[in-house]
């Protein structure tokens, strides 16, 4: 498989994956609307703002990543045609740095989930319960989607490292 095909396949998979951020954001926004329209108890009313904020955050992440990766597809082709060797090196460096960033994400998000769970235990007000539970749900969604993205990035990085750049084929 040639380098350009490998890079564009990765970018297309990322574009597909970011749609899940958008899908989950819509679900959070619908939940917020549902709590607003149907919520009768204090706890149900307390979910309106946290689910709205979580939905907007996930939508921002999803749209940002979607358009970034969508533009990468054409950008890859231009950079590849300009200089194959520099494109290869930049992708190798980008994947290495991204993999390091993911290790930080996979340490920080579980800590945030623990903090939110502790808030549920120690602060017994409807607002803080709703904030904590919504935060946990949103962070789990991020972990699920980023987990698959990390796995794809690992495979992409390994395939990049195995490429013979002079011939543009796998070793």
Describe the protein in words.
The chain has 171 residues and is mainly alpha-helical. Helices cover 88% and strands 2% of the residues. The chain has a two-stranded antiparallel sheet with strand order 1-2. Strand 1 (163-164) and strand 2 (169-170) form a beta hairpin. Helix 1 runs antiparallel to helix 5 (126-161), helix 3 packs parallel to helix 5 (126-161) and helix 4 (84-122) packs antiparallel against helix 5 (126-161).
Give the secondary structure arrangement, pairings included.
Blueprint: H1 3-38, H2 42-46, H3 48-82, H4 84-122, H5 126-161, E1 163-164, E2 169-170
Antiparallel strand pairs: 1-2
Helix pairs in contact: 1-3, 1-5, 3-4, 3-5, 4-5
What would a concise description of this structure say?
The protein is 88% helix and 2% strand. With 171 residues, it is an all-alpha fold.
Unreliable parts: none
Strand order of the largest sheet: 1-2
**SS class:** mainly alpha
Q: Judging from the principal axes of the Cα atoms, what is the shape?
A: elongated
What's the number of helices? 5
How many beta-strand segments? 2
**Radius of gyration, taken over Cα atoms and rounded to an integer in Å:** 20 Å
* Secondary structure: helix percent: over 70%
Q: Major sheet, described briefly?
A: 2 strands, antiparallel
The mean pLDDT is 92
| N-to-C CA distance | 10 Å
How much of the residues is beta strand, in percent?
under 5%
């Amino acid at each position: 498989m040639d380098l350009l095909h490998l890079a564009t396949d990765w970018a297309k998979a990322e574009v597909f994956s970011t749609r899940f951020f958008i899908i989950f954001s819509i679900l959070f926004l619908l939940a917020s609307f549902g709590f607003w329209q149907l919520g009768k108890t204090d706890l149900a009313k307390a979910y309106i703002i946290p689910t709205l904020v979580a939905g907007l955050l996930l939508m921002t992440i999803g749209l940002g990543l979607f358009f970034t990766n969508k533009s990468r597809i054409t950008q890859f082709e231009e950079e590849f045609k300009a200089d194959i060797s520099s494109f290869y090196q930049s992708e190798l460096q980008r994947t290495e740095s991204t993999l390091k960033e993911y290790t930080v994400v996979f340490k920080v998000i579980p800590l945030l989930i623990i903090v939110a769970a502790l808030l549920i235990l120690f602060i017994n007000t409807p607002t803080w319960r709703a904030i904590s539970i919504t935060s946990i749900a949103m962070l789990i969604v991020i972990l699920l989607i980023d987990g698959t993205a990390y796995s794809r990035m690992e495979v992409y990085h390994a395939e990049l490292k195995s490429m013979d750049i002079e011939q543009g084929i796998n070793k």
